Every structure is written in structure tokens, then in C-alpha cells.
Amino acid sequence: MESDISRRSAIVAGAMTILLAACSRGSGSGANSVLRVGDQRGSIKSLLDTAGLLKDVPYPIEWAQFPVGAPLIEAMKAGAIDFGYVGSSTLTFGLAANVPLKAVSTWRFGGPGSALLVPPNSPIRTLADLKGRRIALVRGSPGHLLVAETLRSANIPFSAVTIINMNPADAKAALNARSIDAWAIWDPYFAIGQQQDHLHPIITSEHFGGEVETGAATPSAIADKRPQILDFITRVDRGFQWAAAHPEPFAAAFAADTGLSPEIAHIVKSRMKVTVEPIITDASIARHQHVADIYADIGLIPHRLDISKVYDRSFVIPAR
Predict the structure, then answer these.
(1) In this predicted structure, what is the pLDDT of residue 273?
(2) pLDDT at residue 206, as a whole number
């Protein structure tokens, strides 16, 4: 099998040739066409803006903001946006619903970005205590994956709990009212629940392999806006390099751009360890396949998916 490194060296020159050739043809090739980007809670726009990476973009960007990934996928299905970052769980549900998307870029996360939260003084102390409980989550979200992996690790059948599909705001209110028993959620909602409501995590995504974050694009965008997409994912890579070297201004800008408190923004960004992969790796595809297989095993998607067919490995971020 060809290694990831050799594959990168073999196609990076070709990818850059395509990019330069397309740009040289100008607007007739679509190189100056608007790239319509979906963003969750303004996180990518804030990153690029703060790092100074939106000043010299050679094509227009239209931003569409979403609270979570599921409506972002729906917007791509409707043709309203071209590209956006979503976790492998969210993308899996979209693929199972026959949304025609391709993953063209991947990140890997470190740190406890998602958690299963319970109220102060909750009787839930161990994973075994989850049996018979009501757990709120967003269907197809990182929280959904966390619950599935948590139950599997504790040998608890998925049918032993009651899953309630709720948006983050309603779920937090329901947990505080004790109408549900636990809430599976990700940052920044995780940090907000900890700091504002004193919710307690009984397990986090750090205990498992976590998600692969995917840069997903529509087939039409890949065909017509390849230069823009490649340039955009390259800027995001540079943005995360800048953020790693400047954590305080990154957190402050994130707070200002999203309306989060400085304290919450600092918590979120301090435990967000992002590695942008310059080329899609076999390991990331395998991790995504693991996620999809879990969902198929417990009946959350109707059939197994061959995740490798979803990945377009021709997009290569130039050497740093």
C-alpha cells in the first residue's frame, strides 16, 4: 500500500499546478467565484480574521453561521453553501441520508472537547449508573458519538438508556430542571455548563479516540471552486499554527467574535488541541470508519458505509 507520505509527495505538485493554472485563467474558470462557507458559531471566521488571514484572499467569501453541524449539512444538501467543517459523526449521518458530499481535509483533536454532563449532586457517579437514564444530545453530533462509545465501553446496551434529541439550549435548561439525567455536549457548550451551571463531566472525549473533523465540500464546489477550497484549507492550517503560538489573543478574539465570556473562551481554546493534516491519512479514514461502524451496529444509520469512498485525497496542503 502506498504510504501517506509518498502519496503526498506524488500529488502535491499536481494539486498546486491545478491551482495555479486555474487562477491564471481568471474568473472564466471560476477562480474568482464566491466561496460560500458554513461556520459553526463563528469559530473558523474568528480564527482566520484574528490571524490576519482574511486580508489578502483573492476571491470573495460568503459566511453562513450555524449553531451546530447538522443544519450546516442541510444547507450543503440544499446547495446554499459550498464548504464547511463538521465532525465525522455529523458527516456520517449526512452520508447515511444520501447527502452527496466529499471530505477534502481533516483535523485531529486532542483534549476533552466533548463530555457527558450531569447536574451537581446527581446520583450518576459511574457509567453503570447510566442504565435507565434519560440522555439529551444532538443527533449525529460529537455528543452522540461520545454516548455510543461510553455505553459500549461499559458493556451497556444502547437500548438501556433513553436518548432525547434536543438542541443545546433546551438540553441545558432541561438538565437544570432535572427533566433529563445527563447531557452529551461539546465545547463551548461544555465549558458554559461547567462554569455557569456547575455541571459535572462523568466522562469526556479524551477517554476515547475522539472525532475526525472533516472539511466537507459539495461535488459542484469541488468541480468549480477547487482553487478556492485548496486556498481556504491552507489558510485554516496556517490559522491554527498561529493560534497555537498566540493562545491569549486567539481566545480574546474568539470571545469578542462569538459573544462568549473571556473566561469561557479561554477554557475552550486552552483545551482545544488541533492538528490539521496536510494530507488525508489512512488513520483518519479508519477512525471515521470506526465511527460509522458504531452507528450501524446500534441501528442509528440504516446500513454500513464504506467511508473511504467519501474522501477526496487530491487536496493537499502545501508543505509548511
Answers:
(1) 81
(2) 86
Contacts of 150 (CB under 8 A, 6+ apart): 116, 127, 130, 203, 207, 208
Residue 215 CA, distance from chain mean position? 8
**Cα four-point dihedral sign 186, 189, 192, 198:** negative
Q: What is the pLDDT of residue 14?
A: 36
- Pairing state of beta strands 114-118 and 182-186? antiparallel
Task: State how far the alpha carbon of 175 is from the alpha carbons of 89, 121, 128, 229, in Å.
Answer: 23, 12, 19, 40
- Walking along the chain (320 residues) 10 residues at a time, the average pLDDT comes out as 38 34 39 91 90 96 93 96 94 94 91 92 95 93 90 93 96 96 95 96 87 95 98 96 92 89 92 89 95 90 95 92
Nearest Cα residue to 43 out of 216, 317, 274, 285: 274
> How far is Cα 62 from Cα 43, in angstroms, rounded to an integer?
15
Cell 463563528, residue located? 42
pLDDT value at position 282?
A: 96
Q: How far apart, in Å, are the Cα atoms of 83 and each of 62, 74, 246?
A: 11, 12, 27
* The predicted structure's pLDDT at residue 257: 83
